[in-house]
Amino acid sequence: MDLTQEIADRVRAATGPLRIAGAGTKAWYGRAVVGEVLDLTGHSGIVDYDPSELVVTARAGTPLAEIEAAIAAHGQMLAFEPPAFGTLGGAVATGLAGPRRPFTGAVRDYVLGVRVLDGRGDVLRFGGTVFKNVAGFDAFRLMSGAHGTLGVILDVSLRVTPRPRVEVSLAFDMAGGPARDWVTGLMVRPLPLSGAFHDGERLHLRLSGGEAAVSQAAAELGGEAEGLELWSVLRDLKHPALAGPVLWRIALPQTADIPALEGRLAWDWGGGQVWLSAEAADPQVWTKAAAAGGHATLIRGGKDQVFQPLEPALFKLHQRIKAALDPAGILNPGRMHEGL
Prior knowledge:
This protein is an alpha+beta fold and 340 residues long. The protein has 3 domains: 4-162 and 318-325, Uridine Diphospho-n-acetylenolpyruvylglucosamine Reductase, domain 3; 164-236, Alpha-Beta Plaits (2-Layer Sandwich); 241-304. The chain has helices spanning 4-13, 64-72, 88-94, 101-104, 139-142, 176-186, 211-221, 229-235, 284-291, 312-325; strands at residues 18-21, 36-39, 46-50, 55-59, 76-77, 111-117, 123-127, 152-159, 161-162, 166-172, 193-198, 203-209, 224-226, 246-251, 264-268, 273-278, 295-300. The strands form 5 sheets. Strands 3-4-8-6-7 form a 5-stranded antiparallel sheet. Strand 15 and strand 16 (273-278) form a beta hairpin. The chain is globular, with a radius of gyration of 20 Å. It starts with a helix and ends in a 15-residue tail after the last helix.
């Protein structure tokens, strides 16, 4: 159902902050927003899908499960592997991607175009629905990971990809440090890698592609065959290594040393994403992540500050972009940083 007009009327009539909400499955991610709820769940449905063009367009409130079922029927998938719960709008707004991310790309790499409401209630269209139309200022990619602070996502056009013919998962008894070094070397080779995760005790690799390529790589790498269920659990952030009262996600250059931190460490994305499960939220994690050339996000265990603090110049740039698209500051204010 297309509820564009109703949603636009709500935004235009707003006299205070609006808390953009969909299915609510990602309400835990980000700082708390106090404001009137702007519910997008009814604004749903696949608008257009042409398997031959590898593009699907759907409204923000469309459940991801509905989209994935539709494209799976044609042997296709969302290559950035978002958590399976929630809606399309939530997936794009949070920018969460699964284990395939370093091998296939981030959420923003698959967004071809968006239709959004700005803070004035005006409908804006950025990007397109085919590759050749995706040109100019990449405002549509700004919506990925913006948590609704720059606009109310109405519709999204995504590039989809063919599903791999064969997938296997291999486990190796290898400590985290040597495993990270080994995987870094593997990733520069033409291997059909689609996942590299260390749970703190064992290394897990996923291979995806044609039968011959996967079989050859599996024979060369060795390891112990295991079920593919691990990758679904990891994608949905339900792996035991991610349990605990406090959970940090630390993005680092793949060759950077992992800082000394208190808690259980695991890593994904071939070593580029470190998970830290701890008993308490230590603010030094932000400092240590920055010193290593990365940044940290407090996924669970705190609401006052969640994302890596911004340098003053970068904060001012964020403020300017926010002011251009939401001059009154009513869309999810403070969701990412206080004052934005």
